[in-house]
Design brief:
With 386 residues, this protein is α/β, with parallel strands linked by helices. Helix content is 41%, strand content 12%.
Amino acid sequence: MDNKRLSGKTVYLLAWLILLCGCILVQTGTADYMWQMIYQGIYGQPGETEHGKIYRDNNREPDVYCYMDYWETQIQDVCADGEKYGQTQAESTASSDDDKSDAEDQQDKQADKKDKGSIQESRKAVTAMSDITDSYIDMDADTLLSYCYNAVYPKCVKEDELNAENLLGKDLSLDMNTGGYKVLIYHTHSSEAFADSRQGEVDDTVVGLGQQLADILTNTYGISVYHDTTQYDMLGGTWDRNAAYDYSREGVAAILEANPSIEVIIDLHRDGVPDDTHLVTEVDGKPTAQIMLLNGMCRDEEGNDVDYWSNDNKVDNMSLALQTYLAGRANYGDMMRRIYISTCRYNMDLMPRAMLAEIGAQTNTVEEERNAIEPFAAMLAKVLLK
C-alpha cells in the first residue's frame, strides 16, 4: 500500500516538474528553438538544398495562392495600383532635408494626393516596363523563382532558364508596321464556364471572355486580333479535355499558316479549384477574378527532358509570361497569381510568344470574370506595344 502511495506521489511530482519545465521553456523562447531544431533535423534548413539554396521541392504555393508581402517589404520602388509604394531617390533625399519647413511638407502631401487621384483616374497609363522590371533584373534564379513562380515541381525548370536579365530584357513588342492579325486568341477548353453561367450561353464561357479581350485589344489598343471560337474540347463528338490539346494544335497550326502576320497566341482558360475557393480581388472598386499565367517546361517531375514534348520556344514563352505578370502586379497588385510552372507543353512550342492564361475559376461569377479582361488587356498592351 505504501509503495502504491509513494508511486502516486512520484508520478504527481514528475507531472508538476514537467509542467514547470515546459512553462520555463515557453517563457524563455527555448521551446521555439527546440522545435526549430527538430524541424531542421527532419526537413533540413529552411531554403536548404544540396546547393544550399531555396531552389527546392517544397518551393510552391498551396492550392490557394497565399499573397506575398514581398511587394510591400522588399520592392519599395515597384509600382502598385498605378502609384509608387515607396519614394523615389529624389523624394527620399528631399524628405531627409532637416531645413524643410512644415508648410513645404504640407504642400508636398497635397501634391502627392492630387497625383494619386489623377493616376487612379487613368489606370490604363500603366508604368513603363523599364520601371517595373528594374527591381527584378538582377535577381538570381532562386529569388526570382521564389517571388514570381508557383513551382510544384521546381526541378522541371532549370536555373539558366530563370535568368532575369534575359527574360526581362527581351523586346516582345509587335511589329505594327505590317498589316494583318497580330494576336490569336483561342480556347483549348471552350466549354469552361462559371458559377452563374447560363446554360448554353457562349458569352458566359471563356469564349465570351476571349471575344471581350479581342474587342478591347482591337478597339482600345489598335492590335488586330483573330478570335478562334472552335470548340476543341467537343470536336471528337463528346467532351474530352485531354484530346482537346491535339485538336487545338491542329487548328492553331492551320490558322498560323494561313495568317503569317500573327505574332502572339493566347490560349484562354479558367482554372479549376476546390468549391470553397474564390479567386477574387478588387480593381477600380469592382470584384475582379484573379489571373494566373502558366509555363509548360516539357520535363518530368525530376527535371528530365521529355522528347515528345520538346519546345525550343520555352524561354521566350517564359519571358512573355514574366513580363506580363510583372506589369499586372505593378498596376493591379494581387489580381495576378504567381506564374504556374508545369511539366507539360500545352502547345506553347507553336510560337515564341505563346501564352496560356487562366482567368479566375469555376467558382467566379461571370461579372468577376468580365471585370478582369480590361486590366488583362492593359497589361498585355504594355508588353506588346512600344
